[in-house]
Amino acid sequence: MASLALDRDSTTKPAVSSNRNGDLIDTRAIIADLEKLAAAKRGNDIELRAAVAQRLKAALNEGRDKAERLLLQDRQGRLCAERICRMEDEIIGILFDFVRKHLYPSENPSETEHMAIVATGGYGRGFQAPNSDIDLLFLLPYKQTAWGEQVAETILYALWDTGLKVGHATRSIDECIRQAKADMTIRTALLESRFLLGDRKLFDELVTRFDTDVVRNTAAQFVAAKLTEREERHRRSGQSRYLVEPNVKDGKGGLRDLHTLFWIAKYVYRVREPEELVKRDVFDKHEYALFRRCEDFLLAVRCHLHFLTGRAEERLSFDVQREIAVRLGYTEHPGMQDVERFMKHYFLVAKDVGDLTAILSAELEDSHAKGAPVLSRVMSKLRPVKRKQLGDSKDFIAENNRILCANANVFKRDPVNLIRIFHLAQKHNLALHPDAMRAMTRSLQLIDAKLRDSEEANRLFLDILTSKRDPETVLRRMNEAGVLGRFVPAFGKVVAMMQFNMYHHYTVDEHLLRCIGVLSEMEEGAASDAPLANELIHKIKPASRTLLYVAMFLHDIAKGRPEDHSIAGARVARRLCPRLGLSAADTETVAWLIEQHLVMSTVAQSRDLSDRKTIENFAAVVQSVERLKLLTILTIADIKAVGPGVWNGWKAQLVRTLYFETEPVLTGGFSEVNRAQRVAAAHAEFRHAMQDRQWPTEKVEAHIARLYPAYWLKVDLGHKIEHADLLRSVEGSGKSLATSIRFDTARAVTELTVLAPDHPWLLSIIAGACAMAGGNIVDAQIFTTTDGQALDTISLSREFERDDDEQRRADRIASSIEKALRGELRLPDVVSRRAPPKGRIKAFSLEPGVDINNQWSHRYTMVEVAGLDRPGLLYELTATLSKLNLNIASAHVATFGERAVDVFYVTDLMGAQITSPTRQAAVKRALIALFSRPDARPGKGAA
User: Domain HD: where (predicted)?
Assistant: First the structure.
């Protein structure tokens, strides 16, 4: 029989406890104090109620403080949640008794004046985080009575006055049953009900009625609803369990997934406690122990999160991760910060939750049929079992489109089967049966040096990695089964590894697997935002395709080590590639791609691509057209897999420009001819677009003549059209200054384009005005027209979800820029008075760096500044360079999460490069000093 109650059997009146170690409140003392209040304020119910609420509020605050101290000592999340729940139980019990005794006594209650107070939902589960809601059901035998209404209202108002968030319902048993049948949320809340106080017979009757009238014969309906609800919750919070700022409660692999797992098990298998699933052979003892460990860890994190923030915060954001890591006792190791070690543990637990959920869910649904779930042998209606022998293997069979071991010995008899099973699953498009997953998990110790050196195992793995049949999904299954990290130990080291920065959205292993998925999309031509990569991947040599996939799989595999991960990763590749059967030459190509995998992105985004020396330097690194193609594809896939909105039209255009500027240098062609052809093609594309917009031919040609060739190569068509409309809007108006606003929802930025007369301080003024108005510059594209106008487009972090709110904010920033350019604002004064707003960025610290060299340009000195982002930084950098009597010829502004990387091409006032070591040192000192000023506090601000 399915029971609603947990194992704590409350009596009509809660036991009065002494203040034992672990009890958070002294109930005897509280009751004594309330009795004194009742005596002192007899006859004045209003004052009495207020005084009672204040006394209980003080007790709750003291109890929470003690709960936090105990959690810091023993670090047991489950125990902490039990203590808090028990404290709230006792508070409600004390209040219930007080109300019945002193406010609404009923000496001889009638049949209708009986009541049971029932904990439902999360509170009914018996575990409470410090700021969790309390859900109460006032259960009545029949309809509501005046006495019952008065008691319920008094208890609720008192609890609200203590600061508790209480949800409530007052229903009869018939009403509970009727609503549970109609509403799955109410049904789930009642499933976890727990008797607290009052008439136990009422609760027992509800339990019986719920089981017979609601649960019986409705398991399929309930499971379908819960699995659909889970999918929707994951969609809202982000599908991956490896998001670097996870939601502890609702995220994939979080507490709600554990709850869903138990709800389904409780409903289908008719159990009271998770340990009963062992008796039902759903979990083995190891899996149940894992369930408890996951629950304890996640509850500890959630309780610390509530204590630390002082509210019901469920998102484990950057600004609290380090503090929680310290609270939980994590320490720094070489190559990994304390916070990164904590988050790695978190993601490993999230993975374990996913494994447990998969074990149960696979019993109830066909894992990859996302329609109506198919309940298996535990359901009354079974899907007919369809088995077939896999023709090329006697060790595995297919059952209902899932691969299953033919017998219990397949892995022990031949450990290569631990790789072969995935190869067959990929070849025949089969999901993995939960029994096969369990058998693999129990056989991981068979993956030893002998298996890793097996020629057959490595051949199968390379086939999986380079297959055209969805390699990302199969590799992810290997990773979740624990096989991938064992077979490739270097990969095992980055499983669940988080990089503590705001740029990367996923853990390292998740990023690598997503990169493989992006490559597959490119081969299918499905990467619509990366046409160059779609084209190039079909132009590389057939043998190079394998090298590209191997390099993609390994490019970040050395993250978390004390040394540069690109260099260490190349060393890993030189060891692993021969094992996979690659030749020495192919191994060296893979190692080169890994060692140089960041170069193209860096050059494209932070170098002057119109400077011939930039292209020559990059070509010297690449050395061949085939390597250029491979590096271009790898670079695009790497950026695309970082996270949503990171890859965009501007970056695509910059990478495209760098590729086509470099290709003729490598082939020995005359690059200027090639460049002229590409500029002409860009002109033709623009003419065609403007004809569709019915621009007069002479206007189109005049506009083309106003912009230099570099503009036509670096800017995508959409922005060219918008810029043309802006320039035309000011023609004949007599204005020399104009702004336009555009929202880029994919990147979560607002683009602000400024047209103004060009002068050396222009960028500095724009940056200062943005800082003054609270605009956070994360990117900038800066161009000059042939008639002396500057056309600058800056990207600002979006602040508001609604476009109309964001439009008003952008209008204020644009107005500030125009006022500053007209000289109506004194920027140094305004910017210095603006306090940095609080934000996630305050959680980070970065060592600033300034690099000055003359190797990337024949005409200019390149000054590269990298450091922690903060309000007004770009303004201060440009203002400082100007005060040092340096002319800024071009600037390349980028922000990678919390890290600002700004590159300036400068000359002295005579137009010469800065070659004097003394002067270079002075520039370095002045720029570094900007990061060490007392007011240069970390905070979200301009790039």
Answer: 508-631
Rounded distance, CA 641 to CA 510, Å? 9
Tokens of 218: 């409705």
Question: What does the pLDDT read at residue 776?
Answer: 75
Interval 62-101: pLDDT, tens:
999 999 999 999 999 999 999 999 999 999 999 999 998 8
CB atoms within 10 A of CB 93: 22
Q: Residue 210 is inside which H or E element, if any? A: none
pLDDT score of 272 more than 80: no
Q: Are residues 105 and 154 in the same domain?
A: yes
Asked if residue 468 belongs to a domain, the reply is yes
CB-based contact 49:95 (threshold 8 Å): no
Reported confidence tier of residue 501, pLDDT bands at 50, 70, 90:
low
Task: Please provide the average confidence, as pLDDT, over all residues in the chain.
Answer: 86
Residues 202 and 227 in one domain: no
Domain carrying residue 193: 27-216
Sign of the four-CA dihedral 307, 311, 312, 316: negative
Structure tokens at 161: 């006055």
CA 825 remoteness from chain centre? 40
The encoded tokens of residue 453 equal: 């050196």
More confident residue, 935 or 697: 697
CB 124 within 8 A of CB 170: no
Instruction: Return the beta strands (E) in 682-822 as ranges.
Output: 738-744, 749-757, 777-784, 789-797
Distance CA 23, CA 80 (A): 10
Query: How many domains does the structure of the chain reveal?
Result: 4
d(CA 242, CA 347): 6
Please give the biggest Cα pair distance in the chain: 104
Residues 295 and 349 in one domain: yes
Q: What is the DSSP letter of 624?
A: S
Average pLDDT (1-13) is 37
User: d(Cα 106, Cα 145) in Å, to the nearest integer?
Assistant: 13
Q: Tell me, yes or no, whether 896 lies in a domain.
A: yes
Residue with tokens 């770009």: 874
Phi (first) and psi of residue 167, to 5 degrees: -100, 150
Which of 303, 333, 364 is the C-terminal boundary of a domain? 364
Question: Residue 914 carries which DSSP code?
Answer: -
Residue 848 Cα to chain centre, angstroms:
26
d(CA 66, CA 78): 15
- For residue 78, give the amino acid letter: R
For helices 625-640 and 612-622, give the axis angle rounded to 10 degrees. 100
529 CB-side CA count, 13 A:
16
What is the rounded CA–CA span in Å between residue 699 and residue 690?
10
* pTM, two decimal places: 0.77
Looking at the structure, do residues 83 and 197 belong to the same domain, yes or no? yes
Comparing 39-48, 193-202, 769-778, 838-847, the range with the smallest average pLDDT is 838-847
State the pLDDT confidence band at 7, using cuts at 50, 70 and 90: very low
Q: What is the CATH number of the domain that holds 242?
A: 1.20.120.330
Helical packing angle, 417-427 and 455-466, nearest 10° = 30
DSSP state of 415: T
